Amino acid sequence: MIETSIKINETNIHNRIVLQPMEGCDCNTDGSPSDLTIQKYIKAAQSGAGTVWFEANAVCHEGRTNLRQMMMTKENLPKFKALLQKMREISEKECGIRQTYILQLTHSGRQSIVPMIAYRHPIYEKNRPLTDENIVTDEYLDSLPKKYADSALLAVEAGFDGVDVKSCHGYLFQELLSAFSREGRYGGSFENRSKLYLDCFKAVKNVIPFDILLTTRLSVSDMVPMPYGFGTTEQNELDFSEPDKLIERMVNEGLQILNVTVGNPYYNPHVNRPYRKGGYEPPESAQTGLERFEIIEKHIKERFPSLTVIGSGMSYYREDIFEKSEYQLKSGICDLVGYGRMWLAYPEFYRDFTSGKFDTKKCCLTCSKCTELMRAKQVSGCAVFNEYYRNLYKEIKK
């Protein structure tokens, strides 16, 4: 089933493999793709994967996590056009497919260079203390739908097939979803907390053509106890009541693909990317986290059968990735399977699989070195199998 196509709206997706958005922190300071960025996406074009989900693209300067985050503008648009054109030529010539390209639009909020927060969060601020001066005003939030719409128009002009209005991993929209204590138009009630996310989603919908995919990557649960987390109880257990309400409204507004994720990598990285080795000993087994993904994805598919759901957390399975992917697809848990760390480590993993050359020794070790590079404010990539990033990792360890 992995190799079967799926049609969504007017878009025919060649197979069920999705290369998930993986930030490299390696663009030029104007937000355009650098040589490192281009090299990464050329490998994605050669992978044979049906969908390449581009990394977080900031909609404004103040919403960037770092000065090398991707950010498309009118000035650098030609560089994005050239990259997509080159990728299409390569994927069609070498793999015989027309890949689907989706651009993720984001505002980094608390993780911006100068933090912009929805409210004072005592759990997140244990490691990064902030003040009330970092709280964004309602007036500033009012300005964001236009910025999202403008970025979506640029994505269409560049040649992307879809746009992702991102709300996950503790960034601005996701934090607003748990802003129970915030006053004003964007805090307190569910309607207020989800307002900006939905307003930006609608703003994007209103400017993109009908044949452009309307998507989102959503942390269905922060796995942070209420009242400081979305989609959880006070006991830090899954609570689908508000996520269901939110997804229903987005489906009614035209949502076509939901890319599922969970947690916040700045606080509980074991939740959204179970690992064999990381920065700390996680309070739960990797299997618990993997089962949580399946529970969430199955719940969403059963409740919203017309919605295309992307399963996540797949990289952990290593040599069993295709067996596990087939199981999830055939069981109706998800419609597409997403791989993040895996494609950084072994970008040709799917192409090798289809040609009978899949090498389990090249699979991602889920060792978190790519994240260590990012946290050290370096460009990020696989520090095990890629010589450039391996040497860079050795340098930061010195």
Topology:
Layout: E1 6-8, E2 11-13, E3 17-19, H1 35-45, E4 51-58, H2 77-95, E5 100-106, H3 138-142, H4 144-158, E6 162-165, H5 172-176, H6 190-193, H7 195-207, E7 213-219, H8 241-252, E8 257-261, H9 269-272, H10 286-303, E9 308-311, H11 321-330, E10 336-339, H12 341-345, H13 349-354, H14 369-375, H15 387-397
Parallel strand pairs: 3-4, 3-10, 4-5, 5-6, 6-7, 7-8, 8-9, 9-10
Antiparallel strand pairs: 1-2
Helix pairs in contact: 1-2, 4-7, 14-15
How would you sum up this structure, described in words?
The protein is of the alpha/beta class. It contains 15 helices and 10 strands. Helix 1 runs parallel beside helix 2 and helix 14 crosses helix 15. The longest helix has 19 residues.
Q: Round the Cα radius of gyration to an integer and report it.
A: 19 Å
Q: What proportion of the residues is helical, as a percent range?
A: 25-40%
What proportion of the residues form beta strands (DSSP E)? 5-15%
The succession of helices and strands, N to C, reads: EEEHEHEHHEHHHEHEHHEHEHHHH
* Count of DSSP strands: 10
Tally of individual helices? 15
Sheet bearing the most strands, described?
8 strands, parallel, barrel
Distance between the termini: 46 Å
| Large-scale geometry | globular
**Mean pLDDT over all positions:** 97
What structural class is derived from the secondary structure elements? alpha/beta
Within the largest sheet, what's the order of strands?
3-4-5-6-7-8-9-10
Which regions are unreliable across 5 or more consecutive residues at pLDDT < 50?
none
What tags apply to this protein structure?
10 strands; alpha/beta; two-stranded antiparallel sheet; eight-stranded parallel beta barrel; globular; 398 residues
